[in-house]
Automatic annotation (TrEMBL):
Keywords: Glycosyltransferase, Pyridine nucleotide biosynthesis, Transferase. One of its GO terms (molecular function) is nicotinate-nucleotide diphosphorylase (carboxylating) activity. Residues 28-113 form the Quinolinate phosphoribosyl transferase N-terminal domain. NCBIfam families: nadC. The gene is nadC. Residues 115-280 form the Quinolinate phosphoribosyl transferase C-terminal domain. This is nicotinate-nucleotide diphosphorylase (carboxylating). The keyword S-adenosyl-L-methionine does not apply. Involved in the catabolism of quinolinic acid (QA). The keyword Transferase applies. Belongs to the NadC/ModD family. Its EC number is 2.4.2.19.
Amino acid sequence: MHLPRLSPLVIEPLVRATLLEDLGLAGDITSNAVVPEDHQSAMLFRVREPGVIAGLDIAEMAFRLIDPTVKFDRFVRDGDALQAGDEVARVSGNSRSILAAERTALNFLGHLSGIASATAGLVKAAEGTKASIVCTRKTTPGLRALQKYAVRAGGGMNHRFALYDAVLIKDNHIAVAGNVRVAIERAKAHAGHMVKIEVEVDTLDQLREVMEIGVDAVLLDNMSPDMLREAVAIINGRAIAEASGGITPEKVAAVAASGVDLISVGWTTHSAPNLDIGLDFEA
């Protein structure tokens, strides 16, 4: 899997702000009191449960911003599936520097690896179908780029990044516009030729009306697998079919088997469990 790395221009401000939140004006007063100023250490990142790793660049940035002389040696790559006890990376250098950045590095690494691991589980459940797992805009404010990167590390794909890169007409848009035809016609008149238009529907009658007008994609909201199969037949390849709403690990295989192209999931970014990763003293 080719996983393009996030730009340092994206990573650095987020990591810097997190370190500032933790260290404040006085720094790590515990380590400064307990650890000699020139003490050197080596410590190992290990996963304590199976999962998919994501966020190594972010973890490394935490140490680099505190102390550029600290070494961060990786044993795996983002997107790798690991077992409990596997070593992820070794960090070595000034002990105070390592301890000052430790929690920031672990917070990012555990959170993003949790997202990647949750995504990978859904991707595996959908194997053998054409359905791709995609994320949503239900992300932690400020962390969207990192969380959507973690979804890709887990084998998923990204939905639109924000309000500016695609048109998604939902029920409230239709209510304000008056009806779905008016909403779609206004969107087509406003959007440039590079902008895709998707419409959310929750009944097959709504879907038929939308397909008569014509759009690029249809979001099939909270439909059962049987209803999704009917919807896919109505669409008949004329638009991208996206299933959304109530997608759980137990349901995703049946949803994927309905023939949809995409399955969008919000909880992988807003509620995925943290992957348990520790930083253990080596020497």
